[in-house]
Write a structure and sequence with these properties.
This protein is of the alpha+beta class. It is built from 1 helix and 8 strands, in the order H-E-E-E-E-E-E-E-E. It has 2 domains: about 30 residues; about 100 residues, Sandwich (Tick-borne Encephalitis virus Glycoprotein, domain 1), CATH 2.60.98. It starts with a helix and ends with a strand.
Length: about 140
Amino acid sequence: MSVRADCLAGILAVVVCGLAVACSENGPTAPTPVDVQFTLSPGETAGIEGTAVGLRFDRVTGDSRCPIDGVCVQGGDAIVHISIVAPASSTVYELHTGDMRPVRHGDLTIALVELQPYPFSARPTEPAEYRATFHVTR
């Protein structure tokens, strides 16, 4: 190769590398990974890092889980109501302890990990006593 060809090849390499860096800094980026777990009381909201949304634990309804001090044929179910709160909207979902199936909100997966306290037959659970643990992933 001639000196002139070497020089042009070097300049071309610098330009291509410069464009690659500029594109990677200014171009579309992949969403940041999300993998968080947190526990909330009814009415509490947790922001989900890397997103513009929060998860609010609204309430529990229909807690028919088998009491911890009871003997049951079926395990029962409790319905955990949550809201995904965004700057301009709110979307409501129900999560069930009976099947623990997660819900999808856009590119987020929200799973109920645990609902405490577990019921006792002699005493109903007051709504404010509930604590729900959620796992959010992208």
